[in-house]
Amino acid sequence: MILKEISQTDKDSILKNLSFEGKYSPVEKTFSTIGPVLGKEALQKAWISIILVLSAIVLFIAFAFRKVSRPVSSWIYGIVAVLALLHDVIVPTGVFAILGHYYGFEVDTLFVTALLVILGFSVHDTIVVFDRIRENLHKNEDMGGKKDFETIVGESINETFVRSINTSLTTLLAILVLFLIGPEAIRNFSLALLIGIFIGTYSSIFIGSTLLVTINNWRSKR
User: Fold this and answer.
1) What is Dmax (Cα atoms) for the chain?
2) Which of 95, 143, 117 is CA-nearest to residue 200?
3) pLDDT digits over 152-189, tens only?
4) To which CATH superfamily is domain 35-221 assigned?
5) Peptide bond before 26: cis, by omega within 30 degrees of 0?
6) The pLDDT of residue 105
């Protein structure tokens, strides 16, 4: 059971009331109190974890796409992926902020864990689309570069669309079952995953790839 912060006196009073004047002996398995100092420390570590994950993603994608520097530089793929991931993190965080304001939902370490899981899952979908773009760029070069970048991106999305939807749908179904019949302790964790993975699925298709085309068109007009 998760309660608001209580003092030792309140705790003793609760245990006394649960004993029903000594008729029963309630068993206390664990009792933890999270104060503002620990909360601040957890928040700092959460931000550090997210920043390290995003930095590692940029470096990895820039390295993986180093041989695809035309018409968009390899590091642009990493930046675009991170922008899409920021969107995937901001949306569930905003939803929980609203739920916390109106329904008393709390952000804990499990929520931070859910955000990191969302980052990993979302970047997987994004890389699948980007990798298909890379393959189609190579094929286009072999054919003499007859297609423009926007067409190649559109074809790549069409080729990976069903795979991305099916992968996310099977994952969402499993998490939905966990949310509906799982233990109360991980209910918020499951809800955060549901929101984040759903948002991440469309962002990798409709935001990441669209940003690549937008950046390329902007650079072409300069």
Assistant:
1) 87
2) 117
3) 888 999 998 888 888 889 999 999 999 999 888 888 89
4) Multidrug efflux transporter AcrB transmembrane domain (1.20.1640.10)
5) no
6) 79
